[in-house]
Amino acid sequence: MNGVRLAVSWLTVLPVRGPDEVDRKAAGRAIGWAPVVGVLLGLGAAAVLWAVGAAGGSWLLAGFVAVAGLALITRGMHIDGLADTMDGLGSYGPPERAREIMKSGGAGPFGVAALIFVIGIQAVSFAVLAEAGRWVAVVLAVAVGRAAVVLACRKGIAAAPGAGFGALVAGTQSLAAGALWTVAAVAAGVWATGDWRGPLGVVAALGISALLVRHCVRRFGGLNGDVLGAALEVAVTVSVGIASLAV
């Protein structure tokens, strides 16, 4: 249960305390439970969508409120990681320079553009799914983002120089763990949409996210927390976007 508690304390602002000391073994267990935390967050997002709609708000408003709620309950760290990663990728110079830009704390044009597209696509897609009553697809999309984190931390992925969180979790996940969550997500995709677009969205989301992580590892010299946040947000966006096409 320490792994579950640590995953919740790391990935949300919920008042759950993890273990006092965290080593790579504990960190690996926590990352392995990340998709379960994603399911909990997805249920929360679905509840927010339903509540705004039941109160008379438009579904588009509900979509933006749900995205804002997810950012709030996750401390905004994933969208911050997305912005930092895009700014790093858009920079010139060696990996050291890119990592320096990512740690600067500001948001450049690449980061801002990425946030606009990701937040907009997620909000509109959540709205479409909520209006059609596709609640399972909403939950699945949020969980798929966390499954992408498991794949990003698979064995063979090294941490970037100077990475804090990345050094704890990079290379901690077995191929079996990644395969297990992928199969589970694909199966849930069939249930979520009732046709081929559900599992296609899952496969596309995890595949594109994996390609992004691979490119970032090469560009930055390894994995860090910002890249994990970017992989998560990209996976959620692709998954929910494709699922909304099935409506």
Task: Write a concise keyword list for the protein shown above.
247 residues, mainly alpha, 75% helix
Q: If you had to describe this structure to a student in words, what would you say it looks like?
A:
This protein is an all-alpha fold and 247 residues long. The chain has twelve helices and no strands. The chain has helices at 2-11, 24-32, 34-54, 59-73, 77-89, 95-102, 109-131, 135-152, 165-169, 175-193, 197-220, 225-244. Helix 7 packs parallel to helix 12 (225-244), helix 10 (175-193) packs antiparallel against helix 11 and helix 11 (197-220) runs antiparallel to helix 12. The chain is globular, with a radius of gyration of 17 Å. The chain starts with a helix and ends with a helix. The model has no long low-confidence stretch (mean pLDDT 94).
